[in-house]
Amino acid sequence: MRQLLYESGPMLWVIMVCGLVGFIAFVERGFHLHRAKIKSDDFVGGILNILRRNNIEEALAICEETPGPVARVVQTSILHRDSGHEFLEASVNDAGLSEISRLEIRLGAIATVAQIAPLLGLLGTVLALRTLVGGFAGSQWHWEASLMSEGLNQALATTAAGLAVGIPCYAFYNLLAGKIEALVIDMERASSQLVAFFSSAAKNGKNRTTKDATADKRR
Questions:
Q1: Per-residue pLDDT tens over the stretch 83-93
Q2: Cα 161 to Cα 25, 115, 120, 169, distances in angstroms
Q3: What are φ and ψ of residue 59, in 5° steps?
Q4: Is residue 79 part of a domain?
Q5: Rg (CA), the chain
Q6: Is residue 56 part of a domain?
Q7: 16: CB partners within 8 A, 6+ apart
Q8: Cβ neighbours for 143, distance < 8 A, ≥ 6 positions apart
């Protein structure tokens, strides 16, 4: 194995470095997304109950202590609760986009490794075969079968390595993309609930003000 690594050329080492990068990125993103995943329905329900008691500080403190993008989107909606429906909705959307960008950090690296690793393997095989054929032609067809077999094995090693790196990285990418999509759905649901809550509260506040003003005129 050690001899194969040594004789397969620099392309095999490049593929191995790419695989290491992809694996490290997957582990880091996987841990981050696992930590960011919370029971969003229970969390939003608890925040809404606290807001109905008009305890804004407690709601903000819970959002600050809770990890994940859902908590940050909810926190943004609370901070902009008095800004009007359109500005509140825009602020929440901006916060959601910012959180999505944060979730997708290093995801592109995994996708890149998944795409280029098989190509690097193919390139390594082509280069190795070119060297093999050149040596074969220079020897005027007096090669032993064992030497040819060894050369072909070394040439194909980079293709195998490229596929061995690219296939898992592609699976890693799809797995992480699915987790991110689930978090995005949770963020959208939470933001819709909070925007609807504050819009309804603002509307009820205006109606109460109008009724009080009408009552004062009658008096």
A1: 777 888 888 88
A2: 19, 13, 9, 12
A3: -60, -45
A4: yes
A5: 29
A6: yes
A7: 161, 165
A8: 136
Could you give phi then psi for residue 84, rounded to 5 degrees?
Answer: 95, 155
Q: What is the pLDDT of residue 140?
A: 46
Locate tokens 């959601």: which residue?
96
pTM greater than 0.85 (yes/no): no
Q: Is residue 219 part of a domain?
A: no
Q: Give the Cα separation of 182 and 113 in Å (integer).
A: 24
Give the mean model confidence (pLDDT) for residues 127-153: 63
Q: What's the structural domain count of the chain?
A: 1
C-alpha 198/C-alpha 217 separation (Å) is: 29
User: Can you give the residue range of the structural domain that contains 162?
Assistant: 2-214
In a domain, 68, yes or no: yes
Mean pLDDT computed over every residue of the chain: 81
Return the amino acid letter for 159.
T
- How large is the average pLDDT for residues 146-174? 83
Scanning 39-144, the segments in alpha helix (DSSP H) are 40-52, 56-65, 69-79, 85-103, 107-138
